[in-house]
Amino acid sequence: MPNSVPKLIVRKTRWWNSKWFDVLQLFVFMVGLVWVTFNGANQMGYNWQWYRIPQYFYEIIDGDFYFGPLIEGLFVTMEITAYSIFITLMVGLTTAMLRMSNSLSGRLLAWLYLEIVRNTPLLVQMFVFYFVLGPIVNLDRFWVGVLCISLFEGSFASEIIRAGILSVVKGQWEASYSVGLAQTDTYRYVVLPQAVPLMLPPLTGVIINLIKHSAIVSVIAVFDLTTQALDLIAETFMSFEIWLTVAGIYLVMTITLSVLVSFLERWVRQRS
Amino acid sequence: MPDNAISTETIIQIERVSKWFGDFQVLQDIDLTVRHGERVVVCGPSGSGKSTLIRCINRLEEHQSGRIVVDGNELDYNTKHIHKVRCEVGMVFQQFNLFPHLTVLENCTLGPMRVRGLTKKEAKSQAMEYLERVRIPEQAHKHPSALSGGQQQRVAIARSLCMEPRIMLFDEPTSALDPEMIKEVLDVMIDLAETGMTMICVTHEMGFARTVAHQMVFMDEGRIVENAAPEQFFSNPKNERTKLFLSQILSH
Ligand SMILES: Nc1ncnc2c1ncn2[C@@H]1O[C@H](COP(=O)(O)OP(=O)(O)O)[C@@H](O)[C@H]1O
Ligand SMILES: [Mg+2]
């Protein structure tokens, strides 16, 4: 079992060590949390209107099916995520290679990028992209959002990719060079196939962050899930129901992704 | 065996080569000429620069002064020359360095397909030929980790041969092996020697050296201190350090 931490052996299984008691504890905690929330809301006189939420997912008007604003926002968020994952990985790989290259200017460029991106707030980066870079290179707000998020997450991806590549021992590079493979082929056929399985778990973390951080595009009015939620609340004042629903949607997205990646990992491990 | 024909044509020319790691000089004014078909055995105490010297021949290390010319290609900053040399020079490492994520067969076909442009089918049938020559065709579809050390090293030899090199370099190919596996690797190397391959072997297997070497090289502290035909090298070494080294190693 390479996946689990060695556990202390508990000789006698007492009832409070049982799995069921464990689950019961969690259940009691969750019920308590929900009760505190609703009780508090009732005391401040909040008028729960959950029945109005489904129409923001979909509506059927005169027999025709329409997606509601939440689902449309979800699609935009997913679109941003899909482009950003690709660009993040490209930026991460390029930066990692530049940092490990022999070229002084390449290493300097990578260092400069990492320092700037890591040491300024993401929110400020978004504004710089939107108000400064956007008009200069004539990018629309969707792509401003995608690029900004990709460059931000790319800095984390590059560290992970670099560590993965460096974990492949020197002898592998030398063997590859000695059979005449060029550097790009060495990366492609020898180094990355060994490094990628190690990178997958931490890169999943980056991608989950990317999904969460994508909410920030609402500050430049891209109609993603968060922006749709803000607009709905402005119209309906149902802030509790809508924020809870939106948090739930993000949760479903990130958990689905984690599950998919764990299947992918298992597949990669089985193949090698 | 050493008297099978060596041509007069020089295939590796090393002239006044020096190399430093920081302030430490690993190679000092090395001169060595290897002719086509010649087999050179390099020995010497650990840390004397043997590995560094042969790694300079395919540019895994870069020399800082002097000249190295391999089959007409000078090793300089021209990456085309380096590439050409690496295609003509095969190398076998002490730690085998097989690609662990590929099968034995894939280890042998990667270079030929990517570098020599063979089709998958051609590369496979050629790989099987060489795996037969190193006597493990039945392991072709296994991963290296399923093989013993001796088998892995023979695969590494086959992988190099699949590039059809004109020169083979061996860096202590049996030093990481259990004693009972040394012979199977040496036997494959002796077979290879019989085909007339140009070989440079760093090894302390003196029995092997006596059998195959045309030229014995003894290194100490970054210099070649003795360079002689094996008969003379073993029976009448000139240098005191060579004598000491041989007496130590042959007493085992
Ligand atoms: N990459 C390196 N950086 C610094 N010193 C090195 C490096 N490689 C080898 N050396 C040093 O150079 C000397 C010669 O090494 P090597 O050629 O491996 O010797 P040998 O193969 O004869 O044992 C040793 O002292 C070793 O520590
Ligand atoms: Mg060595």
From TrEMBL, chain A:
> GO terms for CC?
ATP-binding cassette (ABC) transporter complex
- Where located? Cell membrane
- What kind of membrane protein is this, topologically? Multi-pass membrane protein
Residues annotated as domain ABC transmembrane type-1: 74-261
The record's keywords, sorted A to Z, are: Amino-acid transport, Cell membrane, Membrane, Transmembrane, Transmembrane helix, Transport
Is Lipid metabolism one of the keywords? no
Q: A Gene Ontology molecular-function term?
A: transmembrane transporter activity
Q: Which InterPro entries match?
A: AA_ABC_transptr_permease_3TM, ArtM/GltK/GlnP/TcyL/YhdX-like, MetI-like, MetI-like_sf
Alphabetical GO biological process terms: amino acid transport
One of this protein's Pfam families, by short name? BPD_transp_1
Q: Which sequence ranges are marked TM in the entry?
A: 20-38, 80-98, 110-136, 198-222, 242-264
Hey, which family's this protein in?
A: Belongs to the binding-protein-dependent transport system permease family. HisMQ subfamily.
What NCBIfam families does this protein's entry cite?
HEQRo_perm_3TM
Name under which the protein is recorded: ABC transmembrane type-1 domain-containing protein
Question: Per the UniProt entry, what species is this protein from, by scientific name?
Answer: marine metagenome
